[in-house]
Amino acid sequence: MAGQGVFKDLLDGDVFKYYVDGAWTPTTSGKSVGIVNPSTLKPLFKISACTQDEVNKCVDSCKAAQKLWAKVPLWKRAEHLHKLAAIMKDQKITIADCLVKEVAKCMKDAMVEVVRSGDLIDYTAEEGIRILSEGKFLTSDPFPGNERNKYCLASKIPLGVVLAIPPFNYPVNLAVSKIGPALIAGNSVLLKPPTQGAVATLHMVHCIHMAGFPKGLVNAITGKGSEIGDYTTTHPGINCISFTGGDTGIAISKKAGMIPLQMELGGKDTCLVLEDADLELAATHVVKGGYSYSGQRCTAVKVVCVMESVADELVKKINEKIKKLTVGMPEKDCDITPVISETSANFIQGLVEDAKEKGAKLHQEWKREGNLIWPVLIDKVLPDMRIAWEEPFGPVLPIMRIKSVEEGIHHCNANNFALQGCVFTKNIDKAIMISDAMESGTIQINAAPARGPDHFPFQGLRDSGIGSQGIINSINMMCKTKSIVINLPGPSYSMG
Ligand SMILES: NC(=O)C1=CN([C@@H]2O[C@H](COP(=O)(O)OP(=O)(O)OC[C@H]3O[C@@H](n4cnc5c(N)ncnc54)[C@H](OP(=O)(O)O)[C@@H]3O)[C@@H](O)[C@H]2O)C=CC1
Ligand SMILES: O=C(O)[C@H](O)COP(=O)(O)O
Fold first, then answer.
1. For 306-355, how does the pLDDT look when each residue is reduced to its tens digit (9 = 90+)?
2. CATH architecture assignment, domain 269-445
3. Atom number in ligand 2 closest to CA 244
4. Nearest bound ligand to CA 419?
5. For residue 170, how far is its CA from the centre of ligand 2 (angstroms)?
6. Domain residue spans in the chain?
7. What is the set of active-site residues?
8. Measured distance CA(204)–CA(121) in Å, rounded
9. In CATH, what number does 4-265 get?
10. Which of 29, 364, 399, 431 has the highest Cβ tally under 10 A?
11. What ipTM was predicted for this assembly?
């Protein structure tokens, strides 16, 4: 149960405290932000509405802790991370239960999120000790006009305080995918959890507390992003922002100062199905990719461009699979669960109505109860329909029938989003050439888009992001290079 047992210190009455300097602390604002259960639409939890002074306090605490943490040997940093991973896995049921209630993720997927997060931390610790223990040794003589009288030792050093802002759909996993790399690289972290998903994330923060990390190394501030977000992201004490979410990330990057940014934003992942594709395989991946977690994944298949000649057969196979999806509450482990909010459900409905009015064909009857939306396949979508371009973040999937592969590639490249995409064909030469032509961060051949395994690079182009994630890239991104140049009194060449 949330806020019970080993997690009892998180609560001040019925309000979850924020975490600063190694202690769960009530806000001085006297205000809280309510979290509504997306399934029941009833109030669920309350989190602290932190003040700007409390943000300052967290940043100061992060600054002080980072100075000491940077002097902790790598093996010890890794040891702490392994301990954290083990504690999180021990506490997986409680954390997953929060996810079920707060973000309506089905129990099975919520457990996967927590365990995957533990594995991600373990891998980060292992990878980090290798990446960070290696630097570069350069000599001056390759550059014209130089003798070998300078040795350059380049190493990776921490950035300082990393601000981590995850979204609601993977609040725990996308928090640790920022925290793990930041900590192993010697940084401290100020975490601002998404409001919806904050309680699950704060339980993960308590695992950090139980793992015995130094006080102040990770602080967590809570409150509405729209209220404390700008103050926090433009705070002069922040040395890096790692953000995952929607267009908010574009606004943040415009305001941020001269600090490294890692932005993973929205996606409109195109699935291109060719005439020679294995249609059974394509249909399986379209349904898994389009409807899992009710389509609320940045990497969800968000538009299918299928060659006209095989469209009817593909649609038939997709519809057969949609029929088998269970629809209901996350506690029952249903495939389709309520979407995150009423606003989101209304937005999704608006996209479907727009497509219907403009002549698209819905293969299933539109059905909605509260935030629960039954899965819909929208066929014969044309470029003048909003759903051809916009990201629904819901269980509704548009099909565009195309006359040529070029038309599908063009649709993929004309979108502002460019996170992932996929192509289904049995011809590997074609698959590679099409993957090259699709201008997105990652193209999957014969499988739906996906972020994992978590050590793979993960990046969006255009409005889908800046920089690249994945364990290895995140560790490298959360460091800067420091060089020490040894100037010898004269040229020195080692003899064989
Ligand atoms: N590329 C990727 O890896 C992913 C992208 N996404 C994208 O995220 C979107 C859905 O997630 P959602 O959580 O709704 O996204 P939002 O952009 O609304 O929110 C993301 C995070 O930003 C915070 N936030 C809001 N306003 C500000 C602000 N002014 N300054 C700083 N932080 C702020 C939110 O806090 P609060 O909740 O308090 O408002 C939340 O923690 C979709 O577009 C989806 O595609 C999602 C997951 C992965
Ligand atoms: O937040 C998201 O949607 C993810 O980054 C996608 O992760 P997944 O591909 O593992 O679901």
1. 999 999 999 999 999 999 999 999 999 999 999 999 999 999 999 999 99
2. 3-Layer(aba) Sandwich (3.40)
3. 1
4. 1
5. 7
6. 4-265, 269-445
7. 264
8. 12
9. 3.40.605.10
10. 399
11. 0.93
